[in-house]
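Treating backbone geometry as a discrete language has practical consequences that deserve illustration. Part of our work consisted of pairing the sequence of a single chain with a tokenised description of its backbone. What the numbers capture is local backbone geometry rather than side-chain detail. For completeness, the protein is quoted in full, as a sequence line and a line of structure tokens:
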Amino acid sequence: MLGELNDEQIENLLSSQVTGRIACSNDGVPYIVPINYYYDGEKIIAHSVEGKKISIMRKNPVVCFQVDQITNIFNWQSVIAWGRFEEISDMEEKGNCMEALRARIRPFSAPGPDHASHGLAERAEDLGLHLQLIFYKIVLVMKSGRFEKS
């Protein structure tokens, strides 16, 4: 059976996952990449280093976010949300975002001795010295969800 997720199911799926995909577009060319995130009930919170995704979102802040929970091809849930990229510059807000992301992602990670922050740098000590973390939020304006259950 195919169907639509209700508002509560959409919120539960956004809150329960830690990896989703963000889609952005530059000059009509779409770009989609996976991100680790935290959902606070209104917005997606994430971080990155300078790169293609950040460059595109700075030029065109209208984005789409997608997250799934897939058991098998006949049992899945998926949410698509539309929103607006906003870079976070306030130092206190950045700190709060970092703590929220760490707390949310920590139970799902098992870093090895060489593991830097989510593959953003080869060495953890490069973060903050050679690579600056960029914190951002996607303020959601619309959400839609679908499911299949056999």
Remarks:
- DSSP finds three helices and eight strands in the chain.
- The radius of gyration is 16 Å.
- Strands lie at 2-4, 19-26, 29-36, 38-39, 43-48, 62-72, 75-88, 134-148.
